[in-house]
Structure formats: C-alpha cells, structure tokens
User: Which sequence fits this backbone?
C-alpha cells in the first residue's frame, strides 16, 4: 500500500469527473494504489457509526499505521515531473540547482531526459528505500536530496543542525520520529465546517 500526498481532506481519493481531472490521476500520483483498503474501512465504519468518521480520518490513520514512514521520506519515490525544475534552467545564474551534488544531478538528468517519453521515470527519495533508517538525512548532508524543499532543510541554518544530528545518529532520529508521530496522532479533528463523505470517491 502506498499513500503519498493524500491531502488534508483526503482529496486524493476523489474520482475524476467529466471536465475535472482528479488528483489521483495526475502524473505524480500514478504510483498511488490500494484505494480498496480505504474503501473497505469506510464501509465497515459507516455500518458501525454512520456519518461520524471522515475519509480524511481514515487516510490519516492508514498513513500512520500502515505506511507512516513514507512521511519521513526515508521511504518513497518521486516522478521526474516533481523535481526536474532543479535539473535544467534552474535560474538565470545556474542551470542546475547549486545545492545539488553535481554527480547526483547528472544522474537525475540522465534519468529525466528531455523530452521525457517515460512517464514512470523518477528517483527513489532514499537509496535504501526498502529500509527505514537515517540514510535520507545522510543524503541531504551530501547534497543528494531529490526535492528542493527537502534539501533546503540542510542548507537552512535553522534546521541544518537537526538534519546533521539525524544523519550522525540513527537512534536520535528514531526517537524523535516516534515522538513526532505521537504528536501528529493527537492533532484535533476539525468539527466546524467539515463534511463526512459517505463515499470517499465523490463529494456529498
């Protein structure tokens, strides 16, 4: 199961309609799958407590309990479309994002050629993508972050020291990640103005 970028309102679950392409059908989300898990949970929850548990609640729980580690980007994959702006014509001064390791940038340029006829082409967010470890942070220190928004965590003095500490000590990363997940699980549910969808694939 893989749920990435599901949106705070579980918008990734919505189906496309005439003249309106759903988020799930956008190229960056091609690899997202196993929606039936959410559907099955929704059916059972509606039977037990109707109009109570929202689709976003289910996705949040599923993401935490099934694939929560994706949120740390130590596991995951990105298509070229999500980071290719860093590889060519980055700015008026730099063709490639200067925060990116040069050899790594060349590797990604080869994978994400122009024109790119392979819509599935991309890069793992962590070279040890099948293992939950601190290698993702080691890559940031080495300038090998796939996303610019990730790499800036190391280049910014306010957060760089945290990235470096996680890169140096995996135990510290594990401890802090666990604490963050507990805090995330305690975030309150929006009650005012929100809607509980009966079917996660369509709006009420």
Assistant:
């Amino acid at each position: 199961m893989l749920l990435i970028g599901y949106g705070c309102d579980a918008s990734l679950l919505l189906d496309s309609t005439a003249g309106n392409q759903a988020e799930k059908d956008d190229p960056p989300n091609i690899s997202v799958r196993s929606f039936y898990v959410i559907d099955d949970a929704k059916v059972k929850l509606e039977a037990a407590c109707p109009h109570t548990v929202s689709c976003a609640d289910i996705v949040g729980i599923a993401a935490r309990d099934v694939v929560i580690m994706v949120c740390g980007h130590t596991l995951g994959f990105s298509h070229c479309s999500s980071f290719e702006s860093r590889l060519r014509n980055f700015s008026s001064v730099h063709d490639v994002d200067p925060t990116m390791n040069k050899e790594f940038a060349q590797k990604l340029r080869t994978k994400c050629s122009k024109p790119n006829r392979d819509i599935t082409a991309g890069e793992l967010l962590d070279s040890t993508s099948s293992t939950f470890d601190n290698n993702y942070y080691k890559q940031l220190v080495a300038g090998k972050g796939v996303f610019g928004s990730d790499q800036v965590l190391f280049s910014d003095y306010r957060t760089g020291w945290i990235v470096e500490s996680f890169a140096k000590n995996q135990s510290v990363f594990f401890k802090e990640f666990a604490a963050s997940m507990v805090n995330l699980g305690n975030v309150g549910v929006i009650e005012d103005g929100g809607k509980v969808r009966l079917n996660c694939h369509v709006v009420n």
